[in-house]
Design a protein that fits this description.
Length: about 100
């Protein structure tokens, strides 16, 4: 039984000739093509939101160093004056829009 190679003719692969001709036809002489991408404003906004969400997840909810310093200040009886209490109350009211 004799086997015949159908993919080559006389040592030349005809598929290579077709592929090479196809690639040659797609290239224009003297024209250089550069790849580029464009990202929509919505995609940029989504990426920023994702980044901020990651930062928020990594940031502790409680600043224990600040709480410790405030606890130390409150222990001093001279710290809690009527003026300081009124100032703090005013700041809270302004923060809440009242």
């Amino acid at each position: 039984m004799m086997s015949i190679k159908l993919d080559t003719v006389g040592g030349v692969n005809p598929l290579n000739n077709v592929q090479n001709a196809h690639h040659a036809n797609n290239k224009m002489p003297g024209v250089s093509v550069r790849d580029s991408i464009s990202v929509s404003a919505e995609a940029v906004s989504a990426a920023e939101a994702y980044y901020l969400d990651q930062v928020a997840d990594e940031t502790p909810d409680v600043r224990s160093d600040l709480i410790a310093s405030i606890k130390e200040k409150i222990k001093d009886p001279n710290y809690l004056s009527p003026e300081r209490i009124a100032s703090t109350a005013d700041s809270l009211m302004m923060a809440w829009g009242l």
